[in-house]
Design goal:
Helices cover 15% and strands 43% of the residues. It is α+β, with helices and mostly antiparallel strands. A hairpin with a 5-residue loop joins strand 4 and strand 5 (43-47).
């Protein structure tokens, strides 16, 4: 797993967050979303006013198209799961940071049609777990 040695602030996207990422990863502002990406196999979406990890996990459990197959890692702020779509395994992660005033910031693998391996999902999850609020 590559070291998470580059500090990236997301204040240019008006998100009061910082995250440690592998070398070469940068912030990209899309039309609707903010991404932390290197353009290939590391691409996460960062969202403000999102749902908790527990709510997101409940959505996975209820999804009958992208079926939850296995929970690989889970804690109070996030998880990595294996799911199955049309008989094919894919891996996903979700992690949250909550501000003192209750704003939930969600980090998840980008849903742009990419299918991530377990290793890729774990690298992004490890990076997301370093995320924190600026100034805290």
């Amino acid at each position: 797993m590559p070291p998470m040695q580059t500090r990236l602030t997301l204040s240019d996207a008006e998100l009061p967050l910082e995250i440690y990422v592998p070398e070469g990863v940068a912030m990209e502002q899309g039309e609707w979303d903010t991404y932390v990406t290197e353009g290939g196999r590391f691409r996460m979406t960062v969202m403000e006013d999102h749902i908790t990890a527990e709510e997101f996990m409940n959505n996975w459990k209820a999804n009958d198209v992208n079926k939850l197959k296995n929970v690989l890692v889970e804690d109070e702020n996030g998880f990595v799961v294996e799911s199955e779509v049309a008989g094919q395994s894919e891996f996903h992660f979700y992690h949250t940071v909550t501000s003192a005033d209750g704003v939930v910031y969600g980090f998840e693998n980008a849903k742009d049609g990419s299918k991530y391996t377990e290793h890729e999902a774990m690298i992004m999850y490890t990076s997301a777990r370093t995320a924190g609020l600026l100034g805290e």
